[in-house]
Amino acid sequence: MNACSGKLTTGGCLCGAVRYVVKGKLRGIVNCHCAMCQKLHGNFGPHSKAKKSNISITNNKGLAWYKTSEIAERGFCKLCGSSLFWQPFQMDSTGIIAGTLDDSASLKTIGHIFVAEKAKFYDINDAHPKFQNSSNGGLADDYLKD
Questions:
Q1: How is the chain split among helix, strand and coil, in percent rounded to 5?
Q2: Distance between CA 46 and CA 132 in Å, rounded?
Q3: Nearest-angstrom CA–CA distance, 34 and 52
Q4: What is the per-residue pLDDT across 88-132, written as a single tens digit (0 to 9) for each?
Q5: Disulfide-capable partner of 27 in 49, 104, 129, 139 (CB 3.0 to 4.6 Å)?
Q6: Separation between Cα atoms, residue 104 and residue 127, nearest integer Å
C-alpha cells in the first residue's frame, strides 16, 4: 500500500480518538533504539515516515503533542496513551509509529538507529544497517520525495 503515489494508508490509536490518512509513499520501518523511544514504547520504536503535507488527521479528539527536545515533538492520544508520531520541527516529514498503521504488511524493516543507546536485554541479530546515532540520510528514503 505504500509504494505508489495516490495510494491511501490509514491508521490511528487504540481507542479511535485519533485517526489519520497518509496519501502516497511511506518509508520502510526504521527501528529507533534511543532512550526516549525506550521510555515511550517499552523497547525500541518502529517508525515509518511520510511527508507532513501527505498526512491528514481525520479525528483529532484525543491528539496531543509533547515537546521532547529542541528538535522535535511527539504526538500521542491523551485518552488511551497510544504513541503515534515523531515530528521534527525543521524537516518536512513526520515519523509514524508503525504499529498504529491499519495495514503495515507492505512495509519492511530497513535499518536501526541509535543502537549505542539500546537496552541491554535484547540483541539486534538481523543484517539491516545499524547506526550508532542518527542515520543522517544513510537509509533508503530518509529524505522522502514524491
A1: 10, 40, 50
A2: 16
A3: 23
A4: 999 999 999 999 999 999 999 999 999 999 999 999 999 999 999
A5: 49
A6: 21
Q: How many Å apart are CA 27 and CA 9, to the nearest integer?
A: 12
> What does the pLDDT look like over 15-44, one tens digit per residue?
999 999 999 999 999 999 999 999 999 999
CA dihedral 19, 109, 113, 26 (to 10 degrees): -40
pTM: 0.91
Closest by Cα among 40, 142, 135, 146 to 85: 40
CATH entry 2.170.150.70 includes domain 8-117 = yes
